[in-house]
Amino acid sequence: MRRRPRPLVLAVLVSVSLCGLMVFGGTAAGQTGGLQHSPAEIVKKYFALDQKGARLDSLSFEAVAPYTDWRDEPTWGRIVVIRGFTVAEHYSQWDIVDSLEVVVPVAFQVIGSVYLETAGFVPEAGTEEIRVRVKSVKNRWRIIEPVLPPHVGQKRMLNFVREAWVKESEPDKRDRLSGLEEELRKMK
User: Fold this and answer.
1) What's CA 186's distance to the chain center, in Å?
2) Same domain, residue pair 68 and 87
């Protein structure tokens, strides 16, 4: 006598199979930088994380690593403080090298630069325009160049300076950090 599968067991097996398909099958379709996405989307995500301070310390660098083709972030002595940025989203605004490589223009609204060694701020209000080379690497869009110093939003930079002030024990350095915080606050 042959046993028929129980409806509950069958339902559980179907559910588990569908969940596995959604989790593992959907991963490939939604992976960061997949070629089905626009290269401008990758550039936008990278600079959005950068604006939030993802490149300010080595622990958070992993957040931007899926967007770039370089493995190590240089040690920067300067941080560019920005109000925001715009990425050219339409392909007619890009330089198309070939079907797997493009150059996407990005414009930053710059407030100035913070120099880490001296805790100094140099106002440099204006627009910085760069061209970001994006290429297919192992079937994923990756930023190839340029490797820029961090471009961080004003609010995040203020929080970063406050954190540094709290951790600093030398009075002279704390005074410089307080001065830097005041200068950053003045910039509107």
Assistant:
1) 26
2) yes
pTM: 0.80
CATH number, domain with residue 87: 3.10.450
Exposed/middle/buried for 129, CB within 10 Å: 0-12, 13-18, 19+?
exposed
Question: What is the rounded CA–CA span in Å between residue 88 and residue 68?
Answer: 18
Residues 43 and 12 grouped into a single domain? no
Q: What domain range is 15 assigned to? A: 7-32
Q: Read off the tokens for 3.
A: 């046993």
Rounded Cα distance between 127 and 156, Å, is 19
Sequence-ordered list of residues with C-beta below 8 angstroms from that of 51, at least 6 positions apart, any chain? 82, 84, 85, 151, 152, 153, 156
Three-class SS of 86-142: EECCCHHHCEEEECCEEEEEEEEEEEEEEECCCCEEEEEEEEEEEEEEEEEECCEEE
Number of domains in the chain: 2
Give percent of the chain with pLDDT exceeding 70: 82
Strands 151-153 and 120-137: unpaired
